[in-house]
Amino acid sequence: MTFIRRTKRDVPSLTTATLPDLIFVVLFFFMAVTHMREVTLKVRYRVPEGTELTKLTKKSAVTYIYIGKPIENVQSANAETRIQVNDKFADLPMVVDYVTEERDRMTPEDLQMMSVSVKADRDTEMGIISDVKQALMQANVVRVNFSALQKSEK
Predict the structure, then answer these.
(1) pTM for the whole thing?
(2) Radius of gyration of the chain (CA)
(3) CA-wise closest residue to 42 among 9, 77, 81, 14
């Protein structure tokens, strides 16, 4: 019995017709699951703990204000507690202007649900938080909440 051996084997050609479809599917997947950070934190923010907490229902109408000490690479000569809105430090009159601008940009449906979320470091003095609350009252903000984590029972 004689076997015929082929010395040259042909590899079937690879079809690349579905390659663009595959690339777009992967692209859409990453676009759907990727969370883009909107604000670069310039203040140190360690989440305080609380016992009576509720979650926000609609986060599209929420404006965030961060309060804390500046982080090391942004730290200026004084290391006092600072207020951050968007990507810049602000003082109290700037907080009023920022909230007013955010309110003007919202749709009427979001305007009814508008709230301001204050994310303050756990070591922030209450006087600064009180000053921010007074500034928010000047800006006619009705809903103010403070971010915290549920305190674990030990």
Answers:
(1) 0.66
(2) 27
(3) 81
81-115 CB burial, b ≥16 within 10 A, e <16: bbbbbeeeebeeeebbebbeebbeeeeeeeeeebb
User: Model confidence over 121-132: pLDDT tens digits?
Assistant: 888 889 999 999
Distance separating alpha carbons of residues 135 and 117, to the nearest angstrom: 14
- Render pLDDT for 56-110 as a digit per residue (tens, 0 to 9): 666 667 888 999 888 876 555 457 888 999 888 888 889 999 999 888 888 888 8
Dihedrals phi, psi of 26, to nearest 5 degrees: -65, -40
Type of residue numbered 129: I
How far apart are the C-alpha atoms of 48 and 9, rounded to whole Å?
Answer: 68
